[in-house]
């Protein structure tokens, strides 16, 4: 049956089906990481981004595709995580801008909306790279615009768009040599293809039509003979412990996870004027993980609280409470421990979808009325690293890194929690820079923000060290950029699959050393891999070497490594700190 147009109801069903398809295959997308490291996260980031957008769309859907696409765009923008999530949010942002004036779209308008999304996404990326999700989206949209001149059937159009997207995905290794070398297609492009598959399922079947294969759908899409292994198939000694097993149930202080909306229009004339700062301050007395997003008519609230009754009584002062969700996190944690599983970001899209939770800790003392000249936000991947950043004067430290990237909303809330004239953001990971930049864009005109594009924890620490309170914004920005350019960063982890990288044949379970985004060492034991990596990073022998030890690092290996450095590089200055980062045994910093 042909379909001449799609309205908001059709579009909502398409998005739900696309999100469901992506969620079911998120682990497969993760497995396409170029490096065989245990923290491939493209699928997780895209899944979390879509989940946030879908949550907004389910609450605010309508028959107008213009309104629905705008709601989705807002949700995706705030929930975007990692480069892939930010690019995905920009694709739908551009789509929403085009569709804003329409109740429904015909085939030519739908194609034009796809093209508008591509144009927006390319503008958002400073240096677009071909052979990525951008290429897949571009080729699919270009084909849609061409075909829409020849057909009025959107079902036919979407069928061809999906086919073109798959063709472009298969060609990504020819555009990005590292993909061909490792034998995978682009992970972000694969995620987009899954979303488009959901779109087509919805159009043709009126619902999502996946067979529910989920984790079984790890079909190989590799160009070579790369062997994909799950963590259980790698040497068990290499697998980090479950995060939930490391937490005591009684340690969950603010045990009630609360989410609700305050409808200002239904509050009546007796409703008090809403002061967001005062509201946040009141919530922080018995709560943390606070998110407050307000517009003229609606206030969205998320908080972990000891006293849910007090929270609801406070909210009632400002209007009528709707869509209340309260979860006992101690009870949830006990259930998870009994089941022997860890929390995974894979909710069913047709169930009640929880909103994204900010990882910003509420400040112990509310911001002062007088603005400080500078404020700082940094992303950390371990408790020890967090303490280092706090000792350097960082105001808000976001939990993040490779395995869990902060969202755009996390950065927005962090910025609004700091009472300062100018705020610096240190993303400390190349996959987090775009989300930080997007938060800056969203707050343009409201707050002065500079994103120092630090791509590693050592770069972020070096930038924080270089900052001088008495210097101007321009001078400090220059100082910090110079500092991150002086630092060489390295890390040691383990391989989760067999792969061939440049001239190295890497086996699953081997330790690998990475420097400047390249694998430069592989060995059967941790000490040998660490020594090989440092040998390549050190040039003159009199550099400053900083070692951040991870959760899985063994004291004997660390002492042996320190002894080896002292014997072979006697003029080097060596500092060792407990970083506490997961998955990476060591983070190295070398500075002349």
UniProtKB/TrEMBL annotation:
Residue stretches making up the DhaL domain: 9-201
GO function terms (MF aspect): glycerone kinase activity
GO terms classed as biological process: glycerol metabolic process
Protein name as annotated: DhaL domain-containing protein
Organism annotation: Paenibacillus durus ATCC 35681
């Amino acid at each position: 049956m042909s379909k001449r147009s799609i309205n908001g109801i059709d579009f909502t069903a398409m998005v739900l089906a696309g999100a469901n398809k992506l969620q079911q295959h998120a682990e497969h997308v993760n497995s396409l990481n170029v490096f065989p490291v245990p923290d491939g996260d493209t699928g997780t980031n895209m899944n979390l981004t879509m989940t946030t957008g879908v949550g907004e769309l389910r609450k605010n859907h309508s028959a107008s595709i213009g309104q629905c696409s705008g709601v989705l765009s807002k949700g995706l923008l705030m929930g975007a995580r990692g480069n892939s999530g930010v690019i995905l949010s920009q694709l739908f942002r551009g789509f929403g801008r085009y569709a804003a004036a329409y109740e429904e779209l015909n085939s030519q308008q739908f194609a034009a909306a796809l093209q508008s999304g591509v144009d927006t996404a390319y503008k958002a990326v400073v240096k677009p790279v071909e052979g990525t999700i951008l290429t897949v989206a571009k080729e699919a949209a270009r084909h849609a615009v061409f075909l829409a001149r020849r057909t009025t059937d959107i079902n036919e159009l979407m069928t061809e768009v999906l086919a073109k997207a798959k063709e472009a995905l298969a060609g990504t290794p020819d555009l990005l040599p590292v993909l061909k070398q490792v034998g995978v297609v682009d992970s972000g492009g694969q995620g987009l293809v899954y979303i488009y598959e959901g779109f087509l399922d919805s159009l043709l079947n009126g619902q999502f039509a996946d067979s529910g294969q989920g984790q079984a759908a790890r079909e190989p899409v590799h160009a070579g003979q790369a062997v994909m292994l799950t963590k259980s198939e790698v040497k068990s000694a290499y697998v980090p412990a479950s995060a939930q097993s490391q937490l005591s149930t009684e340690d969950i202080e603010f045990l009630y996870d609360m989410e609700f909306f305050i409808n200002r229009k239904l509050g009546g004339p007796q409703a008090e004027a809403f002061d967001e700062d005062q509201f946040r301050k009141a919530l922080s007395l018995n709560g943390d993980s606070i998110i407050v997003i307000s517009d003229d008519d609606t206030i969205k609230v998320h908080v972990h609280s000891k006293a849910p009754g007090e929270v609801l009584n406070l909210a009632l002062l400002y209007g009528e409470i709707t869509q209340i969700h309260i979860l006992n996190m101690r009870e949830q944690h006990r259930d998870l421990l009994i089941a022997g599983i860890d929390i995974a970001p894979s909710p069913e899209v047709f169930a009640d979808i929880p909103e994204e939770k900010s990882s910003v800790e509420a400040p112990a003392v509310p911001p002062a009325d007088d603005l400080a000249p500078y404020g700082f936000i940094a992303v950390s991947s371990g408790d020890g690293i967090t303490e280092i950043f706090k000792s350097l004067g960082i105001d808000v430290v976001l939990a993040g890194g490779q395995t869990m990237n902060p969202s755009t909303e996390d950065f927005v809330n962090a910025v609004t929690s700091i009472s300062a004239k100018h705020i610096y953001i240190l993303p400390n990971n190349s996959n987090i820079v775009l989300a930080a930049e997007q938060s800056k864009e969203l707050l343009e005109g409201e707050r002065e923000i500079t994103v120092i594009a630090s791509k590693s924890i050592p770069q972020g620490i070096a930038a924080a060290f270089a900052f001088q309170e008495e210097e101007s914004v321009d001078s400090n920005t220059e100082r910090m950029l110079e500092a991150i350019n002086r630092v060489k960063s390295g890390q040691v982890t383990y391989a989760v699959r067999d792969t061939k990288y440049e001239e190295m044949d890497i086996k699953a379970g081997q330790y690998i050393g990475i420097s400047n985004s390249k694998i430069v060492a592989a060995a059967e034991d941790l000490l040998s891999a660490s020594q090989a990596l440092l040998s390549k990073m050190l040039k003159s022998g009199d550099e400053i070497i900083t070692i951040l030890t991870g959760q899985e690092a063994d004291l004997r290996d660390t002492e042996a490594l320190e002894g080896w450095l002292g014997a072979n590089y006697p003029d080097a200055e060596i500092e060792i700190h407990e970083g506490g980062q997961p998955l990476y045994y060591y983070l190295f910093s070398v500075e002349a």
